[in-house]
Amino acid sequence: MANTSSARKAARKIARRTVINKARRTRVRGAVRKVEEAITAGDRNKALEAMKQAEPQLMRAARQGQLHRNTASRKVSRLTHQIAKLDK
Q1: Confidence band (pLDDT; 50, 70, 90) for 21?
Q2: pLDDT tens figures, 61-71
Q3: Residue 62: which of 52, 77, 72 has the closest Cα?
Q4: Which of 1, 29, 31, 62 could form a cystine bridge with 69, CB 3.0-4.6 A?
Q5: What pTM, to 2 d.p., does this model score?
Q6: What is the pLDDT of residues 37-77, one digit of tens each?
Q7: Is 43 left (phi over 0), alpha (psi -120 to 50) or beta?
C-alpha cells in the first residue's frame, strides 16, 4: 500500500492509465486479427479494407506508447507484404 500522498496519487493514475491502455491494445489486436483472418481466407479485398482500419490503429498505438514504433512499422510491413502475395 502506498504510504505518501504522491504515491497514492501515482497509484490512482496507474489504475486509470491501465484501463485506457488495455482498451487501446485490445482495439489494435482486433484490427490486426481481422486482417490476418482475411489473409488466411484468401480474400484480398476484405484484407485491404481491414488493413485500412488496422494501419492507423497500429501507428496511433505507436505514437501513444502502446507499441514501439519499429514494432508497429514491422507489423504494417509484414501484413502489407502478405496482402500483396494474395494477388499472385
Answers
A1: very high
A2: 999 999 999 99
A3: 72
A4: 62
A5: 0.83
A6: 999 999 999 999 999 999 999 999 999 999 999 999 999 99
A7: beta
Q: Is 86 exposed, middle or buried (0-12, 13-18, 19+ CB in 10 A)?
A: middle
Cell of residue 75, nine digits: 507489423
Calculate the CA dihedral of residues 86, 57, 32, 69 and round it to 10 degrees: 90
List, as one string, the DSSP characters of 13-38: HHHHHHHHHHHHHHHHHHHHHHHHHH
Give the type of residue at 43.
D
Q: Are 36 and 47 in contact (CB under 8 A)?
A: no
Taking the C-alpha atoms of residue 49 and residue 53, their distance in angstroms, rounded to an integer, is 7
In whole angstroms, what is the distance from residue 54 CA to residue 13 CA? 28
Instruction: Establish how many alpha carbons lie within 13 A of residue 66's alpha carbon, considering only the half-sphere containing its beta carbon.
Output: 21
